[in-house]
Write a structure and sequence with these properties.
21 helices, ARM-like, mainly alpha, 0% strand, 73% helix, 3 domains, 350 residues, elongated, Importin N-terminal domain-containing protein
């Protein structure tokens, strides 16, 4: 087994698979030896040079994940000292694997966990390279998304991860200057991303693609310019196509909750009033006006319980943000209390 530690020769990936299998499935001294060999392999400064061979030839998923861990460590700790040619080579290699793995529905589903890890690796590279050394990334991901529905679905997952890394987790991982630059670039290029998302929400019929796009849109809503929300048809698409559909209504309500919770200038007051009325009108088709919410909640499936929770969150978030500032606040509150007894929903969580 020790032969895999000879980095002067081409790696025998089949032997490495055996070492990894022995570590995960073996017992006693053989397992301990496999652990020692794997530790030495991963700690070698030359291990990353074998990652491409492992990902190309390994037949064992755990071996591939070890290779990706090695690559992730390289990106996080030594990326800046690599020659640009090697950086571009790694970048292109990961992109090609992602495209090959996501371009048909069978591998997209079967290799989901592997693909998720590849996506994370790509986002780590983007945090190092984009936009200065990879200015065409956004146009490229939008273009490939339009070429293949399965690739588009995975590209949505990549964009979601990128948004989370920049806007949600950046304080722990990047300098303020780097974070600011990435946020500025993301906002600057968002029109291309939005066009793709809106095309999917308007025209797509593949459930998994629609769900991935709604999940991605949800991550965008707390930072994108308000014009994309209130001066386009995105809210109408959410309402007309998805909010009443059992398959999409929970994530759609989460999107509408993010929108409804925004505190902005009075310029959009009428838009918020229209949003509230639109959502409440849709909700009456999902839960009867005469329904006992607590009884329904206690006897519902997990998905339907989540729906009721999301309804409560929409109402409480919206009214908390707008009840005191809107001239029509009293009308909103009357509608909630009298036309539709959703105030009782919030009692489930008090």
């Amino acid at each position: 087994m020790e032969s895999v530690l000879d980095f002067s020769k081409d790696l025998d990936v089949d032997k490495l698979d055996i070492v990894v299998k022995t570590f995960y499935q073996g017992v006693g001294p053989q397992q301990q030896l496999a652990q020692q060999i794997l530790t030495q392999f991963q700690e070698s400064p030359e291990a990353w040079l074998k990652v491409d061979a492992i990902l190309d030839k390994s037949k064992y998923s755990h071996t591939k994940f070890i290779a990706l861990q090695i690559l992730e460590k390289l990106i996080q700790t030594r990326w800046k000292i690599l020659p640009q040619e090697q950086q571009i080579g790694i970048r292109n290699f990961i992109v090609n694997i992602i495209v090959a793995t996501s371009d048909n529905e069978q591998s997209l589903r079967k290799e989901k966990t592997y693909l998720n890890k590849l996506n994370l690796i790509l986002v780590q590279i983007l945090k190092q390279e984009w936009p200065h050394n990879w200015p065409q990334f956004i146009p490229e991901i939008v273009s490939t998304g339009r070429s293949n529905l399965n690739i588009c679905e995975n590209n949505m997952a990549i964009l979601k991860l990128l948004s989370e890394e920049i806007f949600d987790y950046s304080a722990e991982q990047m300098t303020q200057t780097k974070t600011k630059n990435l946020k500025t670039q993301m906002c600057h290029e968002f029109s291309k991303i939005f066009e793709l998302c809106n095309e999917v929400l308007e025209k797509a019929h593949q459930p998994s693609l629609i769900k991935a796009t709604l999940d991605t849109l949800l991550r965008f809503l707390n930072w994108i310019p308000l014009g994309y929300i209130f001066e386009t048809n995105v809210i109408e698409n959410l309402r007309n196509r998805f909010v009443e559909s059992p398959e999409y209504r929970n994530v759609t309500l989460k999107c509408l909750t993010e929108i409804g919770a925004l505190s902005v200038s009075h310029e959009y007051d009428e838009k918020f009033i229209a949003l509230f009325n639109m959502v409440v009108s849709s909700l009456t088709t999902m839960i009867p006006l005469s329904a006992n919410i607590a009884t329904i909640y206690n006897n519902s499936s997990n998905e339907d319980q989540e729906l009721i929770q999301n309804l409560a969150l929409f109402l409480t978030s919206f009214l908390s943000a707008h009840l005191k500032v809107h001239s029509s606040a009293s009308v909103l509150l009357w509608r909630v209390e009298n036309e539709y007894h959703y105030i009782s929903i919030t009692g489930l969580f008090s």
